[in-house]
Amino acid sequence: MNIFVGAKEMGKTETENWDGTEVVEQEVKRPGKGPKKVLVISGVMCGGIAFLLWATFGFPRKLKNPRIFKEKTCAWNATLCPQGWNRIHNKCFFLSEQEKTWRDSQANCMAYHGTLVIFSSQNEVDILTYYMGPSSYWIGLKKQNASKHWIWANGDALSNRFTINGNEKCAFIFKKGISSANCKDMKKYICSREGVCP
Predict the structure, then answer these.
(1) What distance in Å separates the CA atoms of residue 14 and residue 26, rounded to the nearest whole number?
(2) Beta bridge pairs of residue 165
(3) Which segments constitute the C-type lectin domain (predicted)?
């Protein structure tokens, strides 16, 4: 049987056990409880703000990259090309005036949503050589690593439609045909991309 005799003074309660020993009870403050509350509250607020932004603006609407132009189908003679580009059927071609390495040329074409030129017909080759003048231009053909096979910039293998002279890894076009050179050589380049419907 416990008999408690207590007196309160400034947050302490003193009691005695039945055997006469004194028991002292104190209120203990736990450190770190305040910062945890702030962290939880700020996390909830940030989540709420993020949800409101998502709901208001509806992003991400789709997981695809946004397109500058909406994809429409139209006749090949109705397609448009960016200013300074030439249209051949439904494709757009850009002949550079600057010289770059093959890799830098490809990067520049990609900045305009295209690649180094990929020929789909001999007709395209013939028309472009008419516009080229005496210069040589990088095209989108390259040998991958030690492979002897030519690969277009879009990943397709080269068919036997074109003959490529030389033993280097990057292809270029000039008035007399298609040849190869060291990829670090400086040449002008031709970009290609799909035309867009108005």
Answers:
(1) 9
(2) 179
(3) 88-192
CA 150 vs CA 33, 93, 159, 160, 185: distances in Å: 66, 21, 9, 10, 18
What structural domains and CATH numbers belong to the chain?
7-57 (no CATH), 76-194 (3.10.100.10)
Place of tokens 């702030």: 38
With 90 as the cut, is the pLDDT of residue 115 above it? Answer: yes
Question: How far apart (Å, rounded) are the C-alpha atoms in residues 93 and 131?
Answer: 11
- Helical ranges in the chain per DSSP H: 33-57, 102-111, 122-132
pLDDT in tens, 9-66: 444 445 566 666 666 665 555 555 566 777 777 777 777 777 666 556 555 444 444 4
Polymer length of the chain: 198
Considering only 65-79, 97-111, 137-151, 162-176, which range has the smallest mean pLDDT? Answer: 65-79
Strands 177-181 and 164-165: parallel
C-alpha 150: how far from chain center: 26
Give the pLDDT of residue 81.
87
